[in-house]
Amino acid sequence: MNNNNFLKKHLITIVVITGIILAIIITYGKKDNNILTPPTTSKIIDNLESSTKNKIAEKQQLIKKLEEDFMILKKNFEIKKNDSNKYYDSTNELQYLESDLNMFYNYYLKDLKDSFTFPKIFNGINITKYRIEDIIKKNYYENEFNQIQEKITAFKYKIKQIIPKFKITQDHYDKVKVYITSKTDDKSLLPKEISPEEKIEIDQIREMWKQYLNFQNQDQANIDKYQEECDNFHLKIQEIKDKFPSLESTNFDLQQKIDDKQKKINVKQEDQKQFKYLPNQPESIRTTRKNNYDSLQAEISKLQDERNEIMHQITQVSLQIANLEADQTMYENMLSRAIKLRDSIQCDYDETSTNRLFGSPLSELQKLYEITPSEG
Length: 376
Known about the structure:
Elements: H1 2-31, H2 41-46, H3 50-82, E1 87-89, H4 97-115, H5 129-137, H6 142-160, E2 162-164, E3 166-168, H7 170-181, H8 196-273, H9 283-353, H10 361-368, E4 369-371
Parallel strand pairs: 3-4
Antiparallel strand pairs: 1-2
């Protein structure tokens, strides 16, 4: 009953508010291409300003041109990859370019192409006529276009660096190798007929060789340095070891002297027992016994002082031995570290010396050429 009264009382107000809401929805829905019932993308495109349509068409043409450029460079790459043994790849691009090219196309170029393709245009965005025009006017995609153009230019440069191998004779190769590995920059060592392109590659490999030699010289200097340290540590350790026999002999002799002193002390102490004080003896006898006792005690005290002095000497010798042992341990640890550093550098040196390192200058020289038999 109360609900019926409420509706009757406020019916006019409810009708008015509902009408206002519908009017607002209809007005703004028309203004924004009927946003409540979104039109098709093609209908939105038809309603765009001509300048916006032209810009979209320009971008589509640019994307088409970028895609054509990409397909050309991809084809060039495939040619060189499929016949890689005939090409010189100084930067080893063939190993990585294929995956880089595929990733670039699938995640950058194709994505940009889809964004400007109907009906997918700007997929994922709440598309209206005003939104599309806003995107085009503000060049939201300009960075993507620039980055893709720069990336394609970079790919072109990398693929261009993969050049055909130079066909030469063994004699030609030997002369180039002598020049590259020579200590002086004597151009007369080179063959007479060398193209500018080949000369550029030779100069680059020679620079690699100079760096290679520089690293070798640095390694050799460090090897010599650590070897000298090892020799010095060996010498110090040997000097320490040479001191042990004398100190141990001294220690043994002193211990013998202590034993001798202790034996004499023990004998004197046994003799002293017979001269202990006895109260029932005559005075003259007690006096004689006391004098004998005191005389022996004086001898015992003297022997004990001599024994203590020898013990002090043993302590000093033992301290010298302990210090020498500590020094020996220290130098042995330093020697161990120096040996590890020397051997590590020696290992690197040996690897580069035998040309086992990937990308060594002489292996690059071999990859540059295709050696053909000499004529005649």
